[in-house]
Design goal:
Layout lengths: L1 E5 L3 H13 L3 E5 L2 H8 L6 E4 L8 H11 L6 E5 L4 H10 L3 E4 L4 H14 L11 E3 L2 E4 L4 E4 L2 E2 L4 H12 L5 E2 H9 L7 H14 L8 E6 L3 E6 L1 H8 L2
Parallel strand pairs: 1-2, 1-3, 3-4, 4-5
Antiparallel strand pairs: 6-7, 7-8, 8-9, 10-12, 11-12
Helix pairs in contact: 2-3, 2-7, 6-8
């Protein structure tokens, strides 16, 4: 199998890569989540092995991105030192298929990989339904955004931003998360570009209170797309 491995611990990398190579697998190492997401946009892998705590975009965020954006359900195994029950539940809820706590035992590791490879269905994951909020409809399948039935002309990158914000409406998205997910780069590398794209998205979608949605920066963090309840209620009224 062709396996993508997210890890920043050199000793761990060498150990796992040696084990996988000995079993005939191809192991591609990524030191941060931004790099991995960027490659996943270009190339398919048979399995993802993810550490949680890595620089930039975390393994948890990579899992959320993969489940929301990849058309095929690639198997995901977490390998991390985080052992709290809440961490395990959070990873599995995000879409992980298995969870291993470091230190990793060789025989168990190989057995889990083989078992997961056997049971994963090759059938593609159904495309999520369109997101409809007030006057807006965002469709991941057709990559279109519509306002009052009229398509909005968006670049591919702008649509990625819109889809991300609508998927996490009401939640603060860090500049780190946005940069890693949409650009596959750390925030310092695309700071001005991110702000420019957000300004264009706000303008093109007419994200104003009277349309039921408001996009605004959160100082020191990132951006948040909020519902304006009173405005949405007026839009629903006959």
């Amino acid at each position: 199998m062709k396996i993508a491995y997210l890890e920043d611990d050199e000793s761990q990398i060498e150990h796992i890569r040696e084990v996988l190579t000995a079993k005939g697998h191809e192991c591609r190492v990524f030191l941060d989540g931004s790099q991995l997401i960027r490659q996943l946009k270009r190339e398919a892998f048979d399995m993802l092995l993810l550490d949680w705590q890595v620089p930039g975009v975390t393994g948890h965020q990579v899992t959320l991105w993969a489940r929301a954006n990849l058309s095929e359900r690639v198997p995901i195994i977490f390998m991390t030192s985080r052992s709290q029950e809440s961490d395990i539940v959070s990873a599995l809820d995000a879409g992980a298929d298995d969870y291993m706590i470091k230190p990793i035992r060789k025989a168990e590791f190989i057995a889990r990989i083989d078992a997961l490879a056997r049971r994963v269905s090759p059938e593609p994951v159904p495309v999520p339904p369109p997101i409809e909020i007030g006057r807006y409809r965002v469709d991941a399948a057709t990559r279109t955004c519509v306002l009052d039935g009229v398509p909005i002309d968006l670049t591919s990158r702008e649509f990625d931003l819109v889809l991300l914000m609508f998927q996490y409406i009401g939640r603060i998205l860090s500049r780190e998360h946005i940069g890693g997910t949409v650009w596959g780069k750390p925030p310092h590398a695309i700071s001005r570009t991110l702000d420019t794209h957000m300004s264009r998205v706000r303008s093109k979608l007419q994200l104003r209170p009277e349309n039921g949605l408001r996009l605004h920066p959160v100082y020191g963090h990132g951006y948040r797309l909020d519902i304006v309840p009173d405005a949405l209620e007026k839009l629903r009224s006959p």
